[in-house]
Records
---
Amino acid sequence: MAERVAIVTGGLRGLGQAMALGLAEAGHRVLAVGHIADDVAPMEAATAARGIPVGRVLPVVADIRDPAACDALVAAARKQLGGLDILVNNAGLTFTYISPDKFRRPTPQPFWECTDGMVQAVMDTNFVAADRLARRAVPHMLAQGWGRIVNVTTKLDTMNRVGSSPYGPSKAALEMATEIWAKELAGSGVTANIVNPGTGANTPGMAEEARTASREGRMPRLLEPDQMVPPLLFVVSEAADAVNGFRFDANHWEAGLPAAAAARRCARPAGLVLHEPAAWAPATAES
């Protein structure tokens, strides 16, 4: 795998931290972006604990809802790390932001109880910032003839679940944007794909009540953040040059298989989240 430069949003904790560290361990240089300054030291400690060389991961605190911050992040990747090849749009405000008492309420929170500020913050973080960063990153990728946009959305039954607004609509927007971007990027050397948990994830944003319910078998097993790394590394590799407009759910990734075979088994077209698997490679490819 050639050495690349990546931006990972939400990259200082949870899924984003795991993906940023996984990219760095694979030899890439990573701008790991978070919004809480207190997350920088733990990220630096995690980087050191894994033996990742100093300077390969650059932790940055920024509010990606600010257009100027997005400009600065793209500039920092190019100036301080030497380029921009991969953008992982992972940052998101989740249910614990929208409804901190979600797992203690007798009924889900209806959309009309959401405030204007809450809806705006969720849409700006989960969709607008991803769109904004992609629009800034893609021209550089097109100029070099290679690039990867990787978005983190969610399952359809999370997007349209009662009580999921505005989180579900924000992720549905990013899901459909991925399909559109992939079509518009076709043949350019730049791809747009999705890597998802496929189920709830054991991250700092997950309510303790959900962890308890998962341990007790009252809800599906929570995905561990490191499980996001194998599908991500495949999508950003040269082996995935022809993979464009697909979604890969990490909970369906079969780690015992070669990456290409695991990818073929769990690939779905972006946007058609309940669609059957669809191959992108010739029939002679490993399956």
---
Amino acid sequence: MYSLEVLLSEKFLVLGDYNMPDFLDVNNFSAKKQLVTEFQSFYNLKQCNSVCNSLNRILDLVFSNFDCVIVRDNNPLVAEDLYHPALHITFEVDIKSKKFVQNRNVKRYNFRKANYIELYNSILETDWSFLNMCEDLDMAMDLFYQKVYSVFDLHVPLYRDYKRKYPKWYGSELINNIKLKSYNLRKYKQTNLNIYLVEYKNLRKNIKLQIDMAYKNYLSNIQNSIHDDPNVFWSYINAKKDCTRIPGKMTYADQELDTPGSIVNAFADYFGSVYRTPSVQALNGKYEGNTSGDIFSMFFLDSKDVEMAIKKLKPKLTSGYDNVPAFIVRDCGNVFANPLKTIFNISLRLGTFPTIWKTARVCPIFKNGDVSDVTSYRPVALLSSFAKVFEIALHGRIYSATRNLLSPYQHGFVANKSTVTNLVTLSQFLSNALDNNYQVDVIYTDISK
């Protein structure tokens, strides 16, 4: 459903059975006719159809704000009735080229169509012993990803980003029937053979039933998934509203942006404006604080640590810059544990972090204010699943050694504590203070960006 503003600025055509044979008669008047006339006048439309039916009436009206030619179709594809003759409408369409071109050289795997039996078998049979010979961390990472991608290339097809032609609820069988229907129509026009026309009509009838059934199943699945995955429901709502999470028109620095490229660049400029690149000295500097009391000594991870960390990943299709989804890492956790253990221990021994894991996909998330304002969004980095495993494994070791040093009043990022325990503690403190006639001052802070 388009907004009034869009319809006023775009070319469009509205046609249908209005069932108003007196629409062209200026002497007849009705409330229905007045409503349609006001719609026609508001959008500056003209009624283009002058083809009468067998009763010399016009029930099918065609309104447009551009020139079009309408004549009687003497070779209709389906049988006509007495009231609605077949129409042939001719008009010109302006095709605008896209201003924003995505990088088509980036390799993207379509894991929705992967051969998982062969994929998992190949990962299981992969020999990772070559990592034991690596002393350089980035070289080990290159060899690791080369092996991972070589397995993906065999069993996971590639896909390029494109705008979906059919609705989400269209299955492969329905899409194939639609293509077959178009093929029979094209062959009938070329050969005028009745066999193609009969097949076209049969497919046309069956496709209507298939579309109805597919849409009902689609709605049923959405309804059943509200409890387990509410994102599916809200995606459906946004699709019905004909909107995306990021509006098509945005503003930044007193400029209006209406192309994908300009919007992406505006987000990059804004997010970069609040980021300060550390100096080389800070990156290479050493900690010079009090080291007299070591909290814990140097340690290395074993396969069990890594495997337990992998199990804590959420089995989702989300992936970082390396395009390896989390559910693949989790499903093959017992296989990835050994090579990842080797990489993690090289990183710990050298005191460096893999370069490839320092790159992340940045996703704008709306926080508050105007949804069309770039400054109303905050960046969220989508990290590599392997980097998350490293973080989880390190957290398990470090937290167990430092948890006794944390303040008992800290509730954030502490096991078995949350905002609920924080509120309970504060409420108890306030109650005790009020009982003893003490004054209580509370300071709340929030980092905006």
